């Protein structure tokens, strides 16, 4: 052993002498860090471990302060982690303080009470298993309810009492639900949706009945309290009955009007009254049918029938035959004693009798069909219809085809009533349309009555007078327009003729004046008189000559120019 230690020490010395200064420094640093880590590990491992007071974080600062104050009053060391958990020294202290906090009401509804049982243990008690089962059912039902479109959040409190030996002593399972409706949802007033939630909870929890479920909203209103709603249900049923009645009356009204207005005009048929009495029923009809047993099916490919059937088939039979002949056995008493047979039967003991009995039982089977069907929710108990038909108003015409007008300016008309045969046919049509049943007490009345057409006739007369006035106005306007056109044409012709004559007269006067001036000039030249003309006179003469030439070449333009001068003057 010493040899081995010496050898190890020599090897260490050899390695130590071979190491450099840097390696030796690193070795000492590693040793120091290892020693410090070991000391820290021993120190922290020797300190007591802390456990959670409640296995859920306490987010409310006010509640957390209350818990810390209560722990301090009980001289319990505590610590709050960064994520909101409260730690205490050991499990016993945690159990004790949880009881105190629950008793004092410091752990409020915001803290999950089931979190007390979130412990990692090797074993679980039956109570903890029941708690976990209850939590799982509650969580699942809350998820189902919150999955609905009309529910924003849901909280369920489920009470599952312990099972008793006798059913009479067993307390029922109860559930209370608080829901928060989504904005815009009608679940608070919609009874069908609330009943759907009740059924969802009832079928999801074993042993829970509908009467033990209470659903409330955030305002404290019980949503599934249907006590006292019989009156409301009766009103709803009455409203449905009235709606169905109105629907049927509208349907029959449309059928009657459609059938009669195709024969008569639209304005000649009116339904004065239609009344349908309905009887609402709710029952099931169960029917049992017995029909023959088919032994051979019919072949559809042959012209004759191969069908063979029997009414019934013998399933079982039992026969019993009894036969007896001789005297009956009359027991007597002990030897030397008289029997107990009555005297009347004792006298018959010497008679010989015969007895036969035949009994036969046969059981037959037949085809049986059970039919269960729901009856119609309502049936018509009585129908009454009253229809009025108007006659025809015909206008009178003269031989030339024009209307006959009364002295008051109205169209003369003649009224033609509806015949009795037409009324009878119309009544049959109406009775067929509504399904008339005399045994049900139905009534159908179709009568002829003249409708008040005063306003309609006055409107037609006013329209006729208006059309006549329009025709006369158009005629007089056309006559006046023709006279105006003729007058305009005549005036135009006369004006042109007068203008032509005036122009000819002016031209004649101009020629005469020019001829007189030329004659005066020639006479002056002949006499040798030196005639001097001013510049203005020459310009005037030249202008006159130009005007005369223009008037000869363009007489229309000159006449228009003269008219313009006269208008300006």
Commentary on this structure:
The protein has 569 residues and is of the alpha+beta class. Helix content is 46%, strand content 22%. It has helices at residues 2-18, 21-46, 61-73, 91-104, 126-146, 191-204, 230-261, 343-346, 420-434, 454-527, 535-553, 555-568; strands spanning 51-52, 79-80, 86-88, 151-159, 173-181, 208-217, 269-280, 284-291, 293-296, 308-310, 313-326, 353-365, 367-374, 378-389, 392-395, 413-416, 443-448. The strands form 7 sheets. A 3-stranded antiparallel β-sheet has the order 1-3-2. A 3-stranded mixed β-sheet has the order 4-5-6. A hairpin with a 5-residue loop joins strand 2 and strand 3 (86-88). Helix 5 runs antiparallel to helix 6 and helix 7 packs antiparallel against helix 9. The longest helix has 74 residues, at 454-527. It is flat and about 205 Å long. The mean pLDDT is 77.
